[in-house]
Write a structure and sequence with these properties.
Elements lengths: L4 E4 L2 E2 L2 E2 L1 H14 L4 E7 L6 H6 L4 E6 L8 H15 L3 E5 L2 H13 L5 E4 L1 E5 L2 E8 L4 E5 L6 E5 L17 E3 L29 E5 L10 H10 L2 E4 L1 H5 L20 E5 L5 H7 L4 E6 L12 E4 L2 H14 L1
Parallel strand pairs: 1-4, 1-6, 4-5, 5-12, 6-11, 7-11, 13-14, 13-15, 15-16, 16-17
Antiparallel strand pairs: 2-3, 8-9, 9-10
Helix pairs in contact: 3-4, 5-8
This protein binds flavin-adenine dinucleotide (FAD).
């Protein structure tokens, strides 16, 4: 059944986040041959419309307004509701990002519809669209179908492969004028932490340190390995609580959920709350002195040893490649 599907393009620092392209790919599956419409909301974002088309959107609708310069759920929901009123889609896909997690339940409630959140896979099976999503902190997966009405889902970053970029594709990028009113929140200032390279939630390679790194300086060898592999550095809560690193690096149940291609856990015991944030990584390597550490139960490759010896050796070897 061909459907009209809206896909939100997420913009950060003037560029589309990769999850936007993954959402377009998911939107194509939901559309089943129908139309995929990219939506951009913000200030001066229309130039990004063509890129959404090159990644598979059929057309793009842009809502630009000074009050959309910074994300607020009030502002974005007004913008999105205007597009939804105009287009009357049968499907909506967002990334399961901080923004998507905040905005999607608000819109679902406004639309009196259900929401499949944090989908890691989507396929057509037996005449149904079947979404897979992790439950119980990633210990099990459930399959969900929408039996009636709007299909509204958020997708976990790094799980659904984007379509190949096709620079020859073209399509309409049109503006929709929306009067953004009555914002209950106004962002006065955004204070950013100094970014250390690759964004953790979209990184293909993560080198994570736990209490085993023993100090702030203990993260240095991990940073060097991350640099060589073009990856990001993450951490367990143990390392954050010990003040070895910032909480923005925390991975787990109360931190970020990540699914990189390669996750190297260094000096992390593998508590269930940590596994909740990384156990769906494609390849997991664990380095730990304790052969009984629980992290080895989820690891594809385990190295029993001192991380301060093993990590520099890995860095040297990868440098040769
Ligand atoms: P530890 O458990 O102390 O493990 C350190 C490991 O390092 C050990 O296995 C040790 O053998 C190894 N080691 C030591 N030295 C070396 C060395 N030189 N070389 C190699 N290995 C070495 N935790 C999270 O990570 N993320 C969360 O989101 C999270 N949320 C939580 C929510 C709640 C409600 C609760 C109660 C807990 C949460 N935790 C979370 C905490 C979690 O239970 C663990 O306490 C924490 O993950 C332990 O961190 P760790 O593995 O770094 O430390």
């Amino acid at each position: 059944m061909a459907r009209k599907v809206l896909v939100l393009g997420e913009v950060r620092d003037g560029s589309l986040r990769n999850v936007s392209f993954e959402a377009i790919a998911a939107g194509k599956t939901v559309a089943e041959g129908g139309e995929v419409i990219g939506v951009l909301a913000g200030k001066e974002v229309s130039a990004l419309g063509q890129e959404m088309i090159q990644y598979g959107a059929d057309k793009v609708i842009v809502v630009e307004h000074d009050k959309l310069d910074q994300y607020t759920s009030d502002g974005y929901s007004q913008a999105l509701m205007a597009v939804i009123d105009q287009e009357k889609p049968e499907g909506i896909i967002f990334g399961h990002t901080a923004l998507g997690k905040d905005l999607s339940p608000k819109l679902a409630s406004k639309l009196s519809t259900g929401l499949i959140s944090d989908a890691t896979d989507l396929e057509e099976a037996g005449g149904n669209l079947v979404f897979t999503r992790p439950i119980y902190s990633g210990k099990a997966f459930e399959k969900k179908i929408v039996t009636d009405g709007l299909i509204f889902a958020t997708i976990r970053p790094n799980n659904i492969e984007p379509l190949a970029k096709d620079e020859s594709r073209s399509g309409d990028v049109t503006s929709l004028s929306v009067d953004i009113t009555d914002l209950r929140t106004i962002i006065k200032d955004v204070v950013r932490k100094a970014s250390e390279g690759v964004d953790l939630s979209e990184a293909k390679v993560i080198i994570a340190g736990g209490r085993g790194v023993k100090s702030e300086d203990g993260f240095e060898p991990l940073k060097e390995l991350a640099d060589v592999l073009g990856g990001a550095v993450g951490a367990s809560r143990g390392a954050c609580d010990a003040d070895y690193c910032d909480y923005s690096l925390q991975i787990g149940q109360t931190g970020k959920v990540v699914t990189p291609d390669l996750y190297i856990a260094c000096g992390i015991s593998g508590a269930i709350q940590h596994l909740a944030g990384m156990s769906n990584s494609k390849v997991i390597v664990a380095i730990n002195k304790d052969p009984e550490a629980n992290i080895f139960n989820v690891a594809d490759y385990g190295i029993v040893g001192d991380l301060f010896e093993v990590v520099p050796m890995l860095t040297e070897e990868f440098k040769k490649l």
